[in-house]
Amino acid sequence: MSRLGDLFGTDDGEYHPDLPADPDVGEVLLRVDGLTKHFPDTGALGGLHLDRDGDGPLPLSVEREWVRAVDDVTFDVKRGETLGLVGESGCGKSTLARTILRLVEPTDGAVYFRGRNLATLGTSALREVRQDVQLIFQDPQSSLNPRLSVGRIVEEPMRAHGMLDEAGREERARDLLEAVGLDPQHYNRYPHAFSGGQRQRINLARALSVEPDLIVCDEPVSALDVSIQAQVLNTMRDLQDEFGLTYVFIAHDLSVIRHISDRVAVMYLGKVVELAEKEELFENPRHPYTRALLDSIPVPDPRASGERGVLAGDVPSPVDPPAGCRFHTRCPALIAPDSVDLTDEEWDAVRRFARAVDRREFAATDAADIRERYFDGGFPRGEAGEVVKDAVAAIERDDWEDARSLLVGAFVAESVCAREDPEYETDPEYGDDRHFVACHLQRETDQTY
């Protein structure tokens, strides 16, 4: 493709030979293949490095750094289903949604809709496709033009795509307002006269106005009260049956995802770490991050005791994500290096100590206190134990960085979790669809994806 084609795509785009142009229910409508989106780091000191050996007048150099918001994401969405996309804030869910729709240009990868690669479409062809692919935004207020009546808001996509005449657009707008649970007589009212839930229904009516096949929903109920969330979700499910819609539904609330989804993808730091049918994922989670998310769900029982699952540590920077499995810096099940000869109990103690040193979770004390706190009174045996003793000695010297380097080099960097990207496919216990897991804990018994 020419440089102009690299920038703006081609009119017809590329076609996938194995994907149907007019899929039936249950066939692939959308395929995201290796989709990647990196943003330049535009912070005040983004890309600025200290270069002590430089020849210039200042010991500084500038290198472009990139925020890896979405990295090599792959999944299919079948016609008529709802794929739920879940993860904590900042994991790349909304960026993924906008990249699928080419509201931001992808850095790499492909997005096949009806077998056609949206990433290579020219401007005019992309405009035509957007009639079939719509987006519902998170904020029901800021996504509506306060200067337009709700009727005019619903009509705008039809007007942009040349659908119907004025009378036909008004009639369809009134019908859609009624379909989403609003009074058609509110056609001439303005957005400020509606509640948050009603505004989101207006957004839904607007998305439906051009008869799309696919709607990408970017946390459409996160700003609503729980009772209103349920009403909007039920309306969306009813409309899916009535209009034959396909949803990509993004949320951080697992209860919402469980209510509306058929399959669920879990994202962490720009990557999909687990993908399975809804029941399979909730009843048989395989990735430690997915288990931690599920353990964090509040139990509506005042008699329930015990702490909910809480992940220790901070999410790493997407500018410099960890090598291998991106979750390994927080994973409670980090795999021991093959060279480490420790019992499970000893490895758990070493891993816990290494994490505590990395995060400086305790004040520097003498070796006896550290041994009692983390190793039940006795250091591990063998070479691993010598590394631990050296790290403890460094802490006694108040050299935390040396202690961290010793522990990371011996126990973290050599783990398969930090060396290799995990991609496995496991046999499901519920349903018959594939269960993708990006975790090396599956390496012994499961098939590589």
Account of the protein in words:
α4 packs across α5. The protein is α/β, with parallel strands linked by helices. About 35% of the residues lie in helices and about 20% in strands. The chain has helices at about 5-10, 95-100, 125-130, 150-160, 165-180, 195-210, 225-245, 255-260, 280-285, 290-295, 345-360, 365-375, 380-395, 400-410, 415-420, and strands spanning about 30-40, 50, 60, 65-80, 80-85, 110-115, 115, 135, 215-220, 245-250, 265-270, 270-275, 425, 435, 445-449. Mean pLDDT is about 90; it is low at about 1-10. The longest helix is centred in the middle third of the chain and has 18 residues, at about 225-245. It is elongated. It has 15 helices and 15 strands. It folds into 2 domains: about 5-40 and about 60-270, 3-Layer(aba) Sandwich (Rossmann fold), CATH 3.40.50.300; about 345-415, no CATH class. The strands form 3 sheets. It has a 9-stranded mixed beta sheet, with helices on both faces. A 4-stranded antiparallel beta sheet has the order 4-1-6-7. A hairpin with a 2-residue loop joins β6 (about 110-115) and β7 (about 115).
